[in-house]
Structure formats: structure tokens, C-alpha cells
Write a structure and sequence with these properties.
Radius of gyration: 34 Å
Organism: Rhododendron griersonianum
Protein name: Pentatricopeptide repeat-containing protein
Keywords: Repeat
Helix content: 40-55%
Largest sheet: 2 strands, antiparallel
Order of helices and strands: HHEEHHHHHHHHHHH
PPR repeats: 145-179, 180-214
Number of strands: 2
Pfam families: PPR_2
Oligomer: single chain
Length: 260
Amino acid sequence: MSFLRAVCRSKTPLPAPSILLHDLLRIPTTTFKDSSPSSSSTPQFTNSPSFTSGISFCHFHDGRPRGPLWRGKKMIGKEALFAISGLKRYKDDEEKLEKFIKTHVSRLLKMDMIAVLVELERQDEVTLALKIFRVIQKEDWYKPDKFLYKDLIMALAKCKKMDDAMQLWETMRKEDLFPDSQTYTEVIRGFLRCGSPADAMNIYEDMKQSPDPPEELPFRILLKGLLPHPLLRNRVKQDFEEIFPDSSSYDPPEEIFGLR
């Protein structure tokens, strides 16, 4: 205790209190030998390695993480970033673009090529993304994957590239892949956004033949988008009420339909 009082009165800067007490109050550990009669019953004291080497800071932890606990998405490699930059630079020059794809994009590893595709979709560079997808389809490691199709079709529909989306849709079906409910929803939304309710209804009829159980969202998108087309809307509404008897659909005032 006298030593602690002397330390407290000293004006010399001290280490953090938690470190000081941690090391000053450390109790040596004891190691007992075998309790057989031939062995000594006197305990053998051994000092901790950090105690014999002076004040050690390795046992102190302030509660903060030692490093990043979550790094988020995988960083895109330099080769993939270079490819993305070049594709965007030459996208208005078909000749230079094709040459760049052959000399740089085709040399990318599988994960880098997929990273380029995903990033182009994220940036709404869907025409370039479609070209990269065609390159991927020619690779030896390519296998039909509905998620690659799904992301690209949804990106095309979002950008109102419905002709390209439907060409990709047909290719997907030829490879025995079926869209999921989210893909149906976005394609239906894309056609309604482009003012093509008949095409939206064609996708709707295809959706009803899907092996996956139906979901409410694509029905509700259609019910909202077909407000100017009451006959088509009534047909969808009847199906909705049969499939989801416990759910209710919104019926707007008759003035919306032009009725009085």
C-alpha cells in the first residue's frame, strides 16, 4: 500500500490505470506436481512470461475490434476495373469495342468476368452487360444459371430494353430455366412502363403456367398498371381473388375508368 501511495503522489506520467493494476496485482500461478508419495508436496511457483518481461501491453484490450469485422462486397480486381473502363470508353465505337473485348475481356478469369457483368448491370450499362453475357456463354466453364439470366433481364427491363429482355428470356427458356416471381414482376412492370399492356398480359399468362407457386406482387402490379384497361384488369382480378381468397384488391372510383 505504501508503494501505491508513493506512486499516487508522484508527478511522473503513469500508464493507463487498468494496465498498471493489471500488472501490479498479477498473482503468480502455481504448478503442482503429481500427488504420488514419491513427489514433493511443495508447490512450485512459476511466473507468467509477460510478468518476467516487464509491463506487457499484450493482455490489454479496450473493447474495440482488432480489424474490420465486415468488408462488404468483394473488391473488384484491377483487371476487371480496367475492362469496365475500356468497355465504357469504346461503347460508341463498335469496331474498337469488339477489338477491346477480344484482347482484354476474353482473357479475364471467371470471377473477374462475372464481376464485370454485375458491375455493368449496377451502372445501368445494360447494352455492354448483354455483350459481356454473350462472351460468358462462349466460355468453357459456362453453365446455364438462372440467376445470371435473372439479373440481366431485370436490368434490361428497368432500362426499358424490352426487346433485348425478351430475346434473353427465350434463350433462358431454351436452356430449361424458369423465371422466378421477381423476374416475372419486373418484366411485367417493364412492359407496363413502356405502354404495352398486351405484352404484360402475355407474360402474366406464362407466369400462371410456372411450376413455382404464385405470389401477390405481380398480380398487384398488373392490377395497378391495367387501370386504363378495365376488361384486362377484371380478368386479372378474378384470378387474384381465386388464388388469394383472403386478400383484397383495390377498386378505384368509377371515374378513373371514364364511367359516370
